[in-house]
Structure prediction request, 210 residues.
Amino acid sequence: MSIRHGLLALLERGPRYGSQLRTEFESRTGSTWPLNVGQVYTTLSRLERDGLVEQDGEDGAGHALYTITEAGRAELKLWFEKPVDRTSPARDELAIKLAMAVGAPGVDIRDVIQSQRRHTVKAMQDYTRLKAQALTALESGAERERDDVAWLLVLEQLIFQTEAEARWLDHCEARLIRLSATAPRDGAPPAPAIPPRRAEPGRAVSRPGA
Prediction:
């Protein structure tokens, strides 16, 4: 997550002070990625060091105001235009956990997958409920507030992400079941044994996919 560029985008709308930036950042993203004031001011200090923002006096309450520079606007424009780099993906704790669970002594990877699946489905349901509320608010309001639209887009990304995670967990389980049924080659260690999935309450057991 680029807090650096997020703050630049907010400063492009006019001078802001630290806690104001934090509040607006969390409002725009629905507090999905909460910030603390110290994190905001540390980032502002680095932006100031790099010549992308500068201090611009104080407001009536004595808060130090920051404003974006021309170099900051150029940096922000480049960020908006450049695709997010996927060649070095961020570490995914779930992927690392399953990778380490394969063959780990005393670990039933089926239980690990099922536990995560329950959590993922619950999260998907929560995000879907919040999306319905957001849509209702947008459709009933006289104006479509910028922060409300931004929050809706973030929610939809989270829904797509959890749907993909649920499909990936099903795929992992099916893959491991097929591997456990395959006889090991000469000298190769056997694949981890994965018992058939127990049916969860309210969920039909699907056949392993391709």
Q: What stands out?
A: Residues 201-210 have pLDDT under 50 and may be disordered.
